[in-house]
Structure formats: structure tokens, C-alpha cells
Amino acid sequence: xxxxxxxxxxxxxxxxxxxxxxxxxxxxxxxxxxxxxxxxxxxxxxxxxxxxxxxxxxxxxxxxxxxxxxxxxxxxxxxxxxxxxxxxxxxxxxxxxxxxxxxxxxxxxxxxxxxxxxxxxxxxxxxxxxxxxxxxxxxxxxxxxxxxxxxxxxxxxxxxxxxxxxxxxxxxxxxxxxxxxxxxxxxxxxxxxxxxxxxxxxxxxxxxxxxxxxxxxxxxxxxxxxxxxxxxxxxxxxxxxxxxxxxxxxxxxxxxxxxxxxxxxxxxxxxxxxxxxxxxxxxxxxxxxxxxxxxxxxxxxxxxxxxxxxxxxxxxxxxxxxxxxxxxxxxxxxxxxxxxxxxxxxxxxxxxxxxxxxxxxxxxxxxxxxxxxxxxxxxxxxxxxxxxxxxxxxxxxxxxxxxxxxxxxxxxxxxxxxxxxxxxxxxxxxxxxxxxxxxxxxxxxxxxxxxxxxxxxxxxxxxxxxxxxxxxxxxxxxxxxxxxxxxxxxxxxxxxxxxxxxxxxxxxxxxxxxxxxxxxxxxxxxxxxxxxxxxxxxxxxxxxxxxxxxxxxxxxxxxxxxxxxxxxxxxxxxxxxxxxxxxxxxxxxxxxxxxxxxxxxxxxxxxxxxxxxxxxxxxxxxxxxxxxxxxxxxxxxxxxxxxxxxxxxxxxxxxxxxxxxxxxxxxxxxxxxxxxxxxxxxxxxxxxxxxxxxxxxxxxxxxxxxxxxxxxxxxxxxxxxxxxxxxxxxxxxxxxxxxxxxxxxxxxxxxxxxxxxxxxxxxxxxxxxxxxxxxxxxxxxxxxxxxxxxxxxxxxxxxxxxxxx
Length: 805
Ligand code: BGC
Known about the structure:
By secondary structure, the chain is of the alpha+beta class.
């Protein structure tokens, strides 16, 4: 192991699904799980290939209802390749006596290798070396190289290379009762000794997916591909090659695959492009060296360097953070700049949450904003294209403006499921999570952050502003005035904490005045109002005209922004606590000790309680940060301003007091929770932040939720941990026209080096506990303002300056 490699030294069937997710390779256009090429879906393996934005809808009868779900489709398995010796069994790592096993994900090169030595039932010893990549240079290409060494035998060998479109979406056990066959089979054809192709079509969205493969057999420098036997069935095609093997020379098999769909740009027809592309593709080594070169360029933008007093801790942290960066880029690489896709909460790495896009973007975008903001821009355009659908949703619900869905997929319709299965009780339960209207605030936050970092006025004026104004309009129509409190309020919503979707004993879902939602709404209205001063006046009047926005409407937004209610209650020391929602104080305290004793792992308390015929709605328990999200998104200065604007008191102590109150009432049932909590704690106690940060880092590599990572990585938690290094420990904030820096390294961390982009400038930071060195690269841009702790300095391009902290 080193800071760039994820290594497994044995084959562990129980760990395989997790490793498949962690060893996924992808390029933003598509990704394939790190499944064994010889495997098919079953109890141990789950080969999955997912194409960004390739969704399909299926209906199922459940609990007497017809429900429709849209899923990111599991595309045909292009990896499929195995062999057999002398008519024996097809090779499968699970069915042989494994003598040694080594699997390695090279994080720097995005290449996965596997070496297995085994002994078969006839006592023959064989070694298999495999390498694979999903090209980051050519988004449509992937390659697998297999070398087979006969150590002590000679004989015949048969190689089977297939494209398997008989796959279904069966990667998540909880969805087993739902229809899962998304692909209809189309043409499959062998067109040369080394080439065959397969076409399938998604059943409802009618996306044609085509894979074309070349399989070439090599002995040394000599290509020896024999004429194959073709094996064909509905949605499946394979070439079988017979040859001989002896200890003198290994057999090398190269499989190169091209993948296209009918959604692609710049194509005539997907089958034609796939065949053309695979016929023109370079061999494995040449593909690999270009792939490594592009990754090297990406790492120059995304890497960082830390020095920790404990070298082991340093290596582990760097490795995990780089693994996170790798998976984030593999999900949303520069190739998404040309695609109509969002960031699925679970990457392109598995089928959890059906590949849907949630508010998790809020945790992902800051990383890209400061490294490659063009990616954020493309992902924000995914939302802009669905603005009309959001308008329709607002209207259908009886409101104005735009209401974005909690879960989004193909066309921006609400994709949240209506029922979900509690695997603990076997019950199908109504899913009210779509009441998380706060997603609309997250969208504005994302646009605003992107704009603060880039000052991309074209984006803001042509896309961002329209979304912000329509969302502000939704919020103002969603509020009502309460004559008693003389304040505005927001009723019937859910906050980020998914454990609370209703008041106890109330059959109707929804809660009133979720503090997070209400405050975010105020912030949104303020940003919408600020647009008047920021946008070029001509564009602003165009927007007012097209959206029919009047002075009175702006005046109303201003009024609501000053008079929104924020609920408070007292803690055990009689201090004011921001209430998660109105009435929170009436809930029962939860017996954490008792439940921990009884159940051990109580991260998913919702499932435990429901199985006990109880509900978290009765208790002061949170799945994840809710009120605490405010301290994650805003600095104390910003919060102070927001509370003052509303006429509520806010003092610095409000932050630690609320952290203390809610943290002990949180079960961390979402991986986002640990990121937020590490962040808020780190902000108030940065020297002591390391242990919590280290815990958040483990979310996926150690699968701390016990089984969720195998169904897909957690993009929010992965990006959030990188962002802890990037923005939290450095204290980077982009506010007004200033890039603020307020470094405070956790104990043990002796230096932090990173390169970011800010308003077209490339900035290098080298931070130690006592000093910060800032360099700006020469460029033709205007000077920028960098604030160090409290002092604002102007930086010209091409400067290096050092500051004492
Ligand atoms: C969390 C949500 C999150 C979703 C997708 C849920 O478990 O509660 O906040 O958006 O997962 O990651």
C-alpha cells in the first residue's frame, strides 16, 4: 500500500461487492464496477455498467398499488471474459483453489489489476494477470487485458469473450420485488474473427445502447486470433476461441470495447459509431499510456499534499482522499461538460437510489468549483434544462415559480419513490421524502457558490438568475402569514433529517417551520433581491419582463425575508436552541443507551423503530444534521447577518450550544451526517478536528454503514471529506469579491499544500500552523482580492507572498 494504491491480498467473497464499488472505473460518460470479468450477477459478484443519464421507467404492482420507478439502467456487461482448460469448468475465482491473489487499484492511473495463481482439480498450476481501464481520453472506450500462464502444463484452452445484455437491475436487495428488466434485445452480430457487437434498447425510454468488441489473442508479438465459434442468444453474443497453451509462452488476450447510445452527440447511428470506434481503437498499451497522461493532467488540478506527524496517518489519509477524488472525477469527469447529466448521489457505481440526483450536489460542487468549475457549470445546466418541469411541478402543487424535485432523473419529474421497503420488517411504507423542499434552496446555494468562485456573469445572467428568481417566487408563494406570531411561516415540509416526516399521532405527513428550510428560504430571497444590483440592467429588465416580475413582488420578497419565523426552545440549561421544527421540544427524549444495548448498530433507527411498531417521529432523534446544516453552509458572520435581518438574537455561543444539543441526538444514518458534523465541530475547534475527520473518511472504504457502499459510493460524503481539507482547514470562503482564507490546521497536521482556481486565476497555497504562502500564476486576468484572516490584500498575477498567522 502507498498513498496511491488500494490493494487487496486475498479473495474474500463477503467483501467482493464492496470492492467492486470501490474499484469501479469510469470516465463520466460511463462506469463499470470492479467485478471479476469471469463473473455474472449472483450472491457474490455484481458486474454493473452504468451510462450517465441513461434512465428507464418500469411499473410494478406493490402492496395493491401500481408504482412506477425510474432507474439508471444496468447496461450490458462488456467485461465478460473467461477460459477453460481441456474442456474443464469455465474459470471462476470462486471455484478454484486460489494459491495467491492480488488486486490493486492504481488510483493515479485509474487502472485495475488482478493477479491470481490457482491450482485446478487436475493439479495444474496457472497464473492469470489482468489489467483494465475505462478510457478517460476516449469516453466511449474500455479495455481489458488478460494474460494466462500455464506454469506446469501444456494443453488446449478455450477463451470465451462475450457481450452480455441479459443483465437486469438486481444490484439492491431491497428492490427485489420491483420489475428489473429494462433492456429489450436487438441485433447481435459477429462481423470478423475478432469483432462482434450487440445492441439493446431500454424498454420505455427507448435508448439504444450498442457495444462493439474486438478480442485478439497474442503469443508474444504475434497475433494468433483463431476463427471463433459464435455463441448467440437473445441479448447475448460470445466468441469462443480454441488454442493451445504451454509453459514457454503465456497467452495474452486483449478485449477492447466501444460503447455508444442513441443519446450521444455527433453521431450518425450508435451501432455504426461503436463498430467504427472499436475498429479504429489503439491496442491496450497505447490506450493505457494516453489514459495515464490525461489522468496525470487531472491530478495536477485535483491533487493536494499533506504532512502529518504520524506518517501512517498521512499515507492513509492521502490515499483515501485521492480515492474519493478519483471516484468523483470518474462520475463527473470533464466529459460531462458535453452531456446532459447530474451527479447521482451514489455515483455510477451501483444501483442504490436508482441513480437519482438529490441535494447531495451541495456537498459535491464546492470541490469542483475550486478545481474545475466548468464541471459545475455543466451540472447546473442539467438543472436549468429542467426548469420548465419544475415550473409545472410548482403549478400542479398550487404554487408559483419553480419547484425542483427531491429526486431527479431523466426529465426532471419527481422521481422519489412513493413506497419504500423496510428490510427489517418486510413492510412497504409510504415515502414522504419528497417533502424536502429545501432542495430548492440548495440549488440557489449551488448557483451562488459557483458564481462567487468564477464570477461567470454569462452563466448567471442567462441561466442562474432565472432559476434563482423562479425559486424565490416559489418560496414566497409557499409561505403563509400567521396573524398570531405576526410572522411568515412554511408549513408541511421535511427538513434534511429524514427521521421526521410528520407529527406523532398525525396521519398527515409534513412538519411546520423547519428552521433550516425557513432560514435557507430567507437567504434565497435575499440573493434573488441582490440580483437587481448584480445583473447587467438590460438583462435584469428582460428577465423581469419575461417572468412578469413586478416591483410589488420584489417588495413582498423583501418583507417575507425580514419576517420569517424561526422556532426556538430551551435546552436543559435554559438556553435558547434553534428548534429543528415547530413543536420539536414536545417530542420524547430517546433512550440511546437502551437501544444501543439492544441493537448494537443503531444508525438506521428508523428501520429499527418501524419494525418495533414505533416511529422516530415520536422522539428527539435525528438521522443527520438538520439545524446543524446552517453552520456547515454559513460562517458565523453570515448567520449573524441573517438573524439580525430577521430581528432574532444570535451570538457566537449559539453555534457550540446547538452543536452540543443536536449532535448527541443524531444517529448518523446518512454518511452526509459525519461530514457535516466534522465540519461544524472543526470550525469551532479546529485543532481537535482530526479524529472526526478520520472517521468521516472511513465512510466508504470501511463501509461504516455495513453494506451500503457496495450499492454505490456516497458522492456527497466523498466530496465532503476532500472539501474538509480544501475549505474547512484552510478556512477558504468566497464572499463578496474576496477570497477569504483563515487557516487553522488540526493538531498533527504540519502542512497542507493545494492548488485552486479562483476567478480564472490559479492559486497555490502552502499552509503550516504558523504561516501561509500564496502564489498566483502569471495570467492576463485582473488582480484579485485575498483576505487573510481579517486583512484584505490585492494580488497581481505572478506573485508569491508569505504571511504570518
Ligand atoms: C439522506 C439524504 C441524501 C440521500 C442520498 C439519504 O439517506 O438522508 O440526505 O440526499 O440519502 O444520498
